[in-house]
Each structure stands twice: as structure tokens, then as C-alpha cells.
Amino acid sequence: MIPELIVRDRDLRHRVRSLETQESIPIVARYSTDAGQSIPNNTLTIVNFEDLVIDTWSAVTVGASWAFTAPVGGYYQVSVYIEFAATTNWVVGERAEMALYKNGGAGAILDAQENHGTTSHRVTLQGDDVVELAAGDTLNVRVTQVSGAALALRALGDNNHVAIHRIGD
Length: 169
Description:
With 169 residues, this protein is mainly beta. It has one domain (26-167): Jelly Rolls, CATH 2.60.120.40. It contains one helix and 13 strands; from the N terminus they run αβββββββββββββ. The chain has one helix at 10-24, and strands at 28-32, 38-39, 45-46, 51-55, 60-61, 67-69, 74-83, 95-102, 109-114, 124-133, 138-146, 151-152, 161-167.
């Protein structure tokens, strides 16, 4: 804890409280989705993890522009798992890909799958990475698939989730 200070300046008091909070509350966010979001064919799409599991700093904005906004700078661990609903649309040579985007710019490819057969099955994508963020930087997860038609994510939150947490300084 920061030692007790006699602080007359309102802005300085706010900054001291912010530093105390940073020391005591970990930055952890975990969201899932059970909405069966449709992923258009050959269109990079932000995954809307709309169901709050935990968000200690209210750092996530849900919706079509889903984003995690870093409340403070540092290194963040990001883990993602998504699963498409069962389909026979996949044929050999078609691809699904998931990537992490920082501040709207292309980031790390987390997973890619291709060369699926035509039998009914579910394609899963999973991955994790460590990224350095400044306070205010944003992250989101984007997915694309090329199967010839729109495909839905499986409508189970246990099968579609993201976890983000700040790690050591």
C-alpha cells in the first residue's frame, strides 16, 4: 500500500487511489459466447464474447466492436478457444483462421485449420499469446472462414471463450 499522505489536490488524490487500486485488484477478464454468432464466408469478423464471466476492471466492451481495453500498461496473457457448429460445408483446401488484433491492426495468428473432409464435424480454433499493452490499448479476437457459406459458432459458452489477464511487471 502507498503510505498515508495528506493530499489537498483532487487530481493527485485520484491518482493515488488509482495506484492503490492497481496494487490490490488484479486485472482479469473472462467472457464467453453462447449466441451462435454467424461468421460470414471469407469475411474477417470480430468475435462477440457477450457473456461476462469475470471482469475485475470492467475492461471489456461487448457487441459487434467487442474489445478489451487495457486499464494500465503491462504484459497481458490472452487465451482463446472457439468452435464452429457441426457442418458438412468444409471441403479439402478450405480454411478457418483466428487472430488477435491490437488497436485494430493485425496481430498474431493464434490458430489456423484447413483441409477438412466433407463429413459432418466441428472445426475448433484455439491459441494464446502474450502481448505488451499501454494503458488504453485495445485487443479483440477476429476469425475468418472460407467454406462457401456463413457458418455459426457453436451455441455453447463452454466452447467459445476468451481469458485475458495482466501478468508480472
